[in-house]
Amino acid sequence: MKTLLPTSTAGSLPKPSWLAEPEKLWSPWKLQNEELIEGKKDALSLSLYDQLRAGIDIVSDGEQTRQHFVTTFIEHLSGVDFEKRETVRIRNRYDASVPTVVGEVARQQPVFVEDARFLRQLTKQPIKWALPGPMTMIDTLYDAHYKSREKLAWEFAKILNQEAKELEAAGVDIIQFDEPAFNVFFDEVNDWGVAALERAIEGLKCETAVHICYGYGIKANTDWKKTLGSEWRQYEEAFPKLQTSNIDIISLECHNSRVPMELLELIRGKKVMVGAIDVATSAIETPEEVASTLRQALRFVDADKLYPSTNCGMTPLSRRVANGKLNALSAGAEIIRRELSGK
Ligand SMILES: [Zn+2]
Fold it and tell me: Where is the Cobalamin-independent methionine synthase MetE C-terminal/archaeal domain (predicted)?
């Protein structure tokens, strides 16, 4: 990427109200069959347009074709029974009724590859594509088959690798794995979590990223954040291992969070997508607020490795707010670009 401080989003953007009920996670589709297929494509185009209009450099599909960042991928796999449900605790935070792994998991056909090809046709800008990470995937399921979190994660890593290779062939420039679970299961991250991620990126020539955050701005997450105290040092656990991993980019929540910025020193040398937009509030940041967060990050991240981004996905926000935040991100990055070039 030649642009200094290339901007991007963590992933999801709000869907238009004719496609799904806005400001809601797991929002059901409003269309069906052929209309739904066409509607998703139109929403993807619209989402791209919103990003381009805001001046975002690395664009995405806004996750317009998926209902949820983890579930939609798993729905396309065999070996998981969505009718057979068990209640489990997600990320040690809240109980949810989840599908059951009933046999060997496998990817029978590509999941997002057609969507990626479609996006590739629409723009020459670099494209980033988000997939769920292996550890976050196993954390949304009840496993009645492998009976080992590590083994199931490893199987998912192999499946993700198949998908990632086809996304790369479709012209995706950066493949990102969403691993909010890395902020929770520290022992597992170090024992096998990062290794599973490296299995997922095996053989890829495109750039790779891992997104680790404190979650969408939903109540279960904001309540959890209140219990974390004055300093959020969770990143400290995974960073040393990630610093020595093959992952190119690490995407983080920074703005309005209690993450001590100096923790970024632990991943010095990696590219860092610095979350400079808070997704847990509808208040739109000023460009100067964005710039202030980026300035702090620049103390620990070299300028050529700093990628301004959002803390997390923006699905639960209104389109008006999300677009305002995209504009603020662009304008904030531009302030710092000017400062760095001495103009
Ligand atoms: Zn996130």
Answer: 5-329
In a domain, 1, yes or no: no
204 located within any domain: yes
- Strand spans (E) along 73-220: 77-90, 94-107, 128-132, 142-143, 174-178, 207-212
pLDDT per residue as tens digits for the range 173-212: 999 999 999 999 999 999 999 999 999 999 999 999 999 9
Q: Is the pLDDT at 1 greater than 70, yes or no?
A: no
Q: How far apart are the first and last CA of the chain?
A: 22
* C-alpha 290 to ligand 1 mean position (Å): 18
CA of 134 to the centre of ligand 1 (A): 15
C-alpha–C-alpha distance, residues 334 and 44, integer Å: 26
Contact 13, 47 (CB under 8 A): yes
Q: How far is the CA of 342 from the centre of ligand 1 (A)?
A: 33
**pLDDT at residue 223 in the model:** 87
The domain spanning residue 186 has which CATH number? 3.20.20.210
Residue ranges with strand state E in 199-319: 207-212, 249-253, 271-275, 306-309
Domain span at 280: 33-67+111-135+153-340
Residue 55 lies in a domain: yes
Is residue 302 in some structural domain? Answer: yes
Q: In terms of pTM, does the model score above 0.85? A: yes
